[in-house]
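Exercise: predict the fold of this chain.
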Amino acid sequence: MSITVNIYYTGRDGSARKFAEEMVSSGIVSRVRAEEGNERYEYFFPMDDPETVLLIDRWRDEEAVRIHHKSEMMVEIAALRDKYRLHMRIERFTDAVRS
């Protein structure tokens, strides 16, 4: 069962976009994508809201999500989120695989 998490990061004065740019330039995004079980980790910018960035984060299963959430990268991500004073809204979806 795949798990997709949409995270909307919202800030002020372009801070959400700066956060996403630093996530990429610091190498955190590449490291998350290399984690076992990560299937997608991409940022998008809504046309009608310049202060929000959408992260689509997809994992193979709940175990992969659990391991990711316990990783040191989560500390780094939280520190950047605090640095840019972002608010988050989270949506979570599961895809059941039938055989």
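Check your answer against the key: The longest strand covers residues 2-10.
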